[in-house]
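Below is how a single chain appears once it has passed through the pipeline. First comes the sequence as given, then the structure the pipeline wrote out for it. We keep one example in the README because the format questions we get most often are answered faster by looking than by reading.
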Amino acid sequence: MSTPARVLRIGNASGFYGDRFDALREMLTGGHLDVVTGDYLAELTMLILGRDRLKNPAAGYAKTFLRQLEEGLGLAHERGVKVVANAGGLNPAGLAAAVRELAARVGVPVRVAHVEGDDLLAPGRDWGEGVLTANAYLGGAGIAECLRAGADVVVTGRVTDAALVTGPATAHFGWGTGGPDDLDALAGAVVAGHVLECGTQATGGNYAFFGDHDGGRDIRRPGFPLAELHPDGTAVITKHPGTGGIVDIGTVTAQLLYETGGARYPGPDVTARLDTVRLTQDGPDRVRVSGARGEPPPPTLKVGLNRIGGWRNEIVFVLTGLDIDAKARLVREQVTEAFARADRAPASVRWELARTDRADADTEETASALLRLVVRDSDPDAVGRAVSGAAVELALGSYPGFHVTAPPGTGAPYGVFEAAYVDAADVPHTAVLPDGTRVPVPTPLRTRPLEPVPEPPLPEPLPTGPTRRAPLGLIAGARSGDKGGDANVGVWARNDGAWRWLAHELNTDLFRQLLPETADLPVVRHVLPNLRALNFTVQGLLGEGVAAQARFDPQAKALGEWLRSRHADIPEELL
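Resulting structure:
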């Protein structure tokens, strides 16, 4: 009789390219780990790496990761910790070679492997004009193949964030038959991976109720999270002892809702059913994540496309004191007339007045409003001198107190993100083992087209009683983010009473009323009773994606906090 595989401890040391530099060392020295992962890629990061690759074909990977390994590689080797990161970006083979050179230089004998095949920017594939990057989101099977071959360090290109956990878990526990038990276990690993992927967002960072922990906990420098993963996919989310922040049901719920949608969470390894997940407090800074059910993954893979959308420029006029609206009107008319006289006016002109001013303010800054002008065009000249000249020439002939927050520039290119889908069998997912052997990674044996889940039964509504106008955030938390041009807002209740009210009252109509910017956009509501949560998808709010910077908050990071600040008629018994 074989011995059951022991619990696998997987930690995260990066949630994005630019995250805390010391995190890798902190995770390796703070307690026991089997695997440490790093997520360096986002939609915007792929665009940045694409522009790097234009300048230097040997570039295209996250250089920060290499600098972290100068110390971290020896620490990981001493402690027997595997390192798995998607820092390879657009050039995983180049990063793998650089890691080998680094290992030889610092005298650490490690075996390095990489995963490739996600880059679909190749002759014969037409993605349209101006596409800089075209990368399929791969699963964890290639990572697992590398680890089974004895790799100590595995670097990848574009994989799903959860693949950094499903890959090591598959290798460790021997999953891979495609049976129901494997699907459920994989779904649990996907959920754990999603909680870990954004680093300290799972340990109190960016948390709606951070004030509850202020004073009792040090929330200034949250520790990075780790998962104790079991053979059935059950996981305990925790962090190293003595590190800052907190892990409780609220922080884990917030991260589970982040940038997800409905009950089915599709991926290349498995479709995880988020509506089956249950969270229980398992002790201080320990949350058990159980019950995840898995279904076969979709037959297609998502492909992230980044292209240069055009050129953009921005000027922010400062309007101080009295007559704010009249001052804004005057400068808008002056700039509009200047554009009309120009040889080439911008194709897109957008104005936004932010009334940050206060009456009888005791500082000049708090007496001022900001008028933001954003222009876009396919021609850099149309957003360059034509715009900066129009603004500068008004310096002595416009509203009283005229000035801008920064000298007008010449403009800069902006990016556009799109999602496409291809048959998984058409993507050459390949594991390149430490000895150079190239192993094709097969597609899953079973797939299932994605279908929406019917809305589950709602809890009994609260009895009718007196209400009071109050901020929604007094009874509900929220976390929001971006998926291409769409925004996601997850909202959860912290007790059953608040959930009974939230489930019935916060429908798409009230959501649109509370956030008028969404009034004319499609809004989809998803109900997740086990989490006492609602997840809203606002389609098209972010235009062409974060790199296009179409709105004040281009990644919708604060959309949830705006929602929580809005007032609704809330039962007094909940307040």
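The radius of gyration is 25 Å.

See the next section for the split statistics.
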